[in-house]
């Protein structure tokens, strides 16, 4: 899943889509947990992975867990 920040400067990417699909097609992902990374968007539109922002949901205390999408405070579904 991907989610662009409201200001368009950060793109958040997870390697998990939907739990039923993950269980069926990616059992190792379910067993090890997913990750969330941030991709910084430059003014010229170029993209760069932010190596200081990588979240490993396999290391969560109640994990491993799957991260599907990021939401921002105040954001509403359309």
Automatic annotation (TrEMBL):
InterPro entries: Se-bd. Keywords: Selenium. Pfam families: SBP56. This is Methanethiol oxidase. The keyword Flavoprotein does not apply. GO terms for molecular function: selenium binding. It comes from Monoraphidium neglectum. Belongs to the selenium-binding protein family.
């Amino acid at each position: 899943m991907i989610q662009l920040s409201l200001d368009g400067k950060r793109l958040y990417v997870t390697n998990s889509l939907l739990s039923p699909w993950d269980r069926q097609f990616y059992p190792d992902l379910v067993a090890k947990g997913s990750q969330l990374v941030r991709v910084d968007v430059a003014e010229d539109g170029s993209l760069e992975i932010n190596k200081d922002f990588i979240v490993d949901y396999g290391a969560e205390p109640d994990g491993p867990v799957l991260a599907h999408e990021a939401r921002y405070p105040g954001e509403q579904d359309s």
